[in-house]
Amino acid sequence: MNTLAASKSTVPILLLILLLLISLLIPWLTSNTYFLHILILIFIWTIAVSGMNIIAGFTGQLSLAQAGFFGIGAYTYGLLMSKANLAYLPSLFIAILLTGIIGAAAGVVSLRTKGHYFSIFSLCVGVIILLVIEKWESLTEGVRGLLGIPIPKIGSFEFASVESQYYLILFFLVFAMFLNHRIVNSLVGRTFVSIRNSEELAEALGINVMRNKLLAFVHSTVLAGLAGALYAGYIRFLGPEVASVEHTFEMLLYLLVGGIGTLWGPLVGTALVTVLMQLLQSWQEYRMVIFGPLLVLLVMYLPYGIIGAFIRQRMKRQAGKAIQETDENMQKGTKNRKMSGGGLDA
């Protein structure tokens, strides 16, 4: 039994190692820069979506300001690099820190509302951030966009090639997913889930609901800021549309397809939808006409997303096996008692 348990526990680790090895080898296996470009975009958006997953999937608070915080991280990084001539790592750190501070300020106000009111309030926050970026032309260059963001550089090494950018952003993706894994499997993560299940019950158990919701909200904004800064360092041009509400709904789409409230859902959903969008590029005008019904079918038949459906199916199988084993043990026990009783009678 111990061996079986050990083998079960090591399978996910082996899969993770295999996935990581494949990810590391991809730039060596292909010279297709377009393919690497798509993967880099998937990595960046996955980081932002995994932040949305913490506040919406695990804490049950649907924030629609994620693209706004993505824009704050992107513009803070871009301005520090291009106008303040700050180095890469300090710019990245300040971009994340500032996004977190603004996220905390927005969270203190917006989290006083609940349910649909919170979603609408956060949507308004995202729109306000977009308008500030668009209208503050003296700082952000407005609709003209922010040009000439320098290439990321650590020491004497420049991340000038697509391959080097791939490895840089892959590193932050792995870090973000590891951080989320640690949070979700900690007491803090279980507290988030208890708030999602019932805020009243969580309060009755002595949990500080407001403080934990704020913690989850700030964490989501920090990951959005990180993703935005990485995006600015990779694309090296920014326009106000990076903070548009459209991007927030795209992130929500990635999350719903992959599986809200699951650790791997953001990566699977972002990858699948991005690839589908690319495949439908030749039907640009009819892309959403094709993709819309597919999404409706997915929501109807896989309401918990792809990873959510997989987890539920696995839990059902495990529950079925447990019931079967219990029945077999009961039958064996009954049989043994009958045999023992028969021996005494004899």
Gyration radius from CA atoms, angstroms: 24 Å
Number of H/I helices: 14
Question: How far apart, in Å, are the first and last alpha carbons?
Answer: 37 Å
Low-confidence stretches: 1-10
Number of domains: 1
Instruction: Please tell me the overall pLDDT.
Output: 88
Transmembrane segments: 12-29, 35-55, 62-80, 86-109, 116-133, 166-193, 214-232, 252-276, 288-311
Membrane topology: Multi-pass membrane protein
GO molecular function, one term: branched-chain amino acid transmembrane transporter activity
Pfam families: BPD_transp_2
Task: Write a concise keyword list for the protein shown above.
1% strand, globular, 346 residues, mainly alpha, disordered N terminus, single chain, two-stranded antiparallel ribbon
Question: Mind explaining what this structure looks like?
Answer:
- This protein has helices at residues 2-29, 33-58, 66-82, 88-110, 115-135, 137-140, 162-184, 187-197, 199-204, 209-235, 245-258, 265-279, 287-301, 305-345; strands at 153-154, 157-158.
- It is mostly helical and 346 residues long.
- The protein has a single domain (34-303), classed as ABC transporter involved in vitamin B12 uptake, BtuC, CATH 1.10.3470.
- Strands 1-2 form a two-stranded antiparallel sheet.
- Strand 1 and strand 2 (157-158) form a beta hairpin.
- Helix 2 crosses helix 12 (265-279).
- The longest helix has 41 residues, at 305-345.
- The model is unreliable at 1-10 (pLDDT under 50).
- The chain crosses the membrane at residues 12-29, 35-55, 62-80, 86-109, 116-133, 166-193, 214-232, 252-276, 288-311.
